[in-house]
Amino acid sequence: MNNFEHPNDHFAPHAESDWYRSMRHFWHPVAYAKDLVADRPLGTILLGERLVLVRHRSAVHAFEDVCRHKGTALSLGSVENDCLSCPYHGWKYDMSGKLVSIPSRPELNGVLQAQLPSFGCAESSGLIWVSLLANPWGKVPNIPEWTDPTVRWQTPPYYDWQTCSPRRLENFV
C-alpha cells in the first residue's frame, strides 16, 4: 500500500475493481496523436495497465509495456528494422508483438516463442485511442470539432496525480 491508498478509501484502485473491469469495454484516449512520433515508443497507463504505443509506417500499435525477457519497459526502447527493440538486452518484437530476435542468442531466434499482448489501437480526432479488449463496445469516437478551425484546443501540460479515475473525474471535470 502506498501513501495515497487507505484500506477504507472507496476510490482507491483496489476498491474500484468492478469499475475498472467495466471500463475495459470501451475505447479510451491515451495520447495526443502529435505526441506519438514515428518509430519512437511512448509509454502510457490505461486503467492501471502499462502500455507502449508505437507509430510505425502508417499504423499505430499498443502493446503491454514489458519485455518478456527481464521485464524492462519497452517504452524506453526504440524501433529498429520494423521491430520494437528492448533497451536492456535488445530483444526485438515485430509489430504484431511476436519475438523475432534475441541478439545475444541468435540460435534461439524462431525457437523461443514469446508474444507481447497487443491491444486495439486507433488514431481519430487528433488522439490515440486504445481498448484493452479485442471487441470493445462501440466505434472509435470521432470528434468533428478537432479539425474545425473555429475551435481552439488547449492542451495543458501533463502531470501525475496519485488518484483513481472516478475521483479524478469528479474533481477535475
Count the E strands.
10
Separate helix tally = 2
Coarse structural class: mainly beta
Secondary-structure element series: HEEEEEEEEEEH
Largest beta sheet: strand ordering = 1-10-9-4-3-2
* Average pLDDT number: 85
Instruction: Please state the CA-atom Rg, rounded to the nearest Å.
Output: 18 Å
Low-confidence stretches: 1-6
Strand content: 25-35%
Assembly type of the chains comes to single chain
How far is it from the N-terminal to the C-terminal residue, by CA?
A: 27 Å
Roughly what percent helix? under 10%
For the sheet with most strands, the description reads: 6 strands, antiparallel
Shape: globular
Task: Tell me about this structure.
- The chain is built from 2 helices and 10 strands, in the order αββββββββββα.
- The two termini are 27 Å apart.
- It is globular.
- Mean pLDDT is 85; it is low at 1-6.
- It has helices at residues 17-23, 165-172, and strands spanning 28-32, 42-46, 49-56, 59-64, 78-80, 83-85, 92-93, 99-101, 118-124, 127-131.
- The longest helix is centred in the last third of the chain and has 8 residues, at 165-172.
- With 173 residues, the protein is mostly beta strands.
